[in-house]
Amino acid sequence: MLGNKTLKSTLIGGLLTIAGIAFSLQANAACNLVSTIDGKPLNIKVTADDSDAAKKFLETCKNPYNEIFEKDATALKKLGRRAYNYNNCTGCHGGKLEGVMAPGLKKQPVGGQSQWDNQWVYPKNATDKGMFETIAGGTPGKSGKGVMFKWHKQVEGHTGDGLTTDEILQAIAYIRTKYEGTDGKTWLK
Ligand code: HEC
User: Fold this and answer.
1) pLDDT at position 189, please?
2) Residue 111 C-alpha from the chain's centroid
3) Using a 6 Å cutoff on CB, does residue 139 contact ligand 1?
4) Which of 3, 32, 78, 156 has its CA 20 to 30 A from that of 43?
5) Quick one: CATH architecture of 31-188?
6) 51 CB neighbour count, 10 Å cutoff
7) Alpha-carbon distances of 75 from 65, 71, 86, 104, rounded to whole Å
8) Mean pLDDT of 45-67
9) What is the pLDDT of residue 167?
10) Is the CB of 145 under 6 A from ligand 1?
11) What does the alpha-carbon distance between residue 94 and residue 104 come to, in Å, rounded to a whole number?
12) Which atom of ligand 1 is nearest to the CA of 131?
């Protein structure tokens, strides 16, 4: 039979463990990323290779590459265009983001290829948090053109070698520079 003392220390130990788990979850997920597929948490953690920009995004949900690319055209080409082109985003979304077998990503107001071209299939992509979730954790297929892979290395079932937080943020900031839509630059607010 358990003595009173043992019971107490077990209880206290248990409570401390729960507090510890709650704390570490909070520390890792200040931005509270969730999957576009099912709304469940996407637990993306800071790694040793992450740049300051990636760390800042995971804390604040704001993509520092927007500003970096706005000021520095070489960085835009070197990091942004590379992140988009070298990972075969072009294969499905087009070299000019015009949409091929997947929705266009520049959201031109008229003359697009599909009904989705002037609006996001997933409206949350108007924010950087939303677009990061869509690319990192994949999509459920609302466009009728199929689903998109999970891209982040830390997400289970990711495609190929997967992408880092930095690479996804760079691709997003590149996509933002091509935006032609009319509903304001939400991601800069
Ligand atoms: C094999 C084809 C394929 C590749 C490669 C691909 N995508 Fe997609 N992507 C899709 C499809 C299909 C959709 C629509 C998914 C849906 O309806 O759920 C999509 C949707 C998206 C959306 C949301 C569009 C919207 O209107 O809401 C973004 C953003 C996106 N992709 C970015 C990327 C980026 C960045 C890359 C490269 C890292 C990439 N995609 C590579 C097929 C692809």
Assistant:
1) 80
2) 28
3) yes
4) 78
5) Orthogonal Bundle (1.10)
6) 17
7) 9, 9, 15, 24
8) 97
9) 98
10) yes
11) 8
12) 29
Check residue 10 and give its pLDDT: 54
Output the average pLDDT for the chain: 87
At 16 the pLDDT is 47
Burial per residue of 73-90, b for 16 or more beta-carbon CB atoms within 10 angstroms, e otherwise: eeebeebbeebbeebebe
Are the CB atoms for 187 and 127 separated by under 8 Å?
A: yes
Ligand 1 center–CA 90 separation, angstroms: 10
Q: Which atom of ligand 1 is nearest to the CA of 142?
A: 17
CA of 16 to the centre of ligand 1 (A): 42
Q: In one letter, which amino acid is 37? A: I
**Domain coordinates in residue numbering, the chain:** 31-188
For residue 151, the ligand 1 atom closest to its alpha carbon is 38
Here the tokens at position 78 are 């070197």
Find the mean pLDDT for residues 153-157.
98
